[in-house]
Predict the structure.
Amino acid sequence: MILSILDIKKERKRFIIYIISSIIFSIIYELFSHGVISYYMIFMFIFPFIGLLNIILLKRKKENSHIFFKTSILTFTLFFLIQGILEIYGTTNRLVIIYPIVGLSLLIISIILYLRKD
């Protein structure tokens, strides 16, 4: 019983940290964007929330799958951040396409490891 209460408090704390960090990032982005809008920067918070909700709702137990999943979420978030910065700056880079490819590959590996029966 105590362990489940501690888990609930830990999940609640993690959720609050995600919300506060998203709000802080949004405020900083609005302050320094000078009216330039990038949809990549606006919707970048979605990937950490997907990861957080997935971890909370599914209660993943397989550590290998969990590591690959977290890494794929990080890769997609970095892709949106870098693409948003480049979009605001007004330039492009063809090497940015590597991020979604790597993120998708890590996500597929995570799903395979999660569904694999040990």
About this structure: The chain has a mean pLDDT of 81. Helices lie at 2-32, 39-42, 46-58, 63-89, 98-115. The first helix runs from residue 2 to 32.
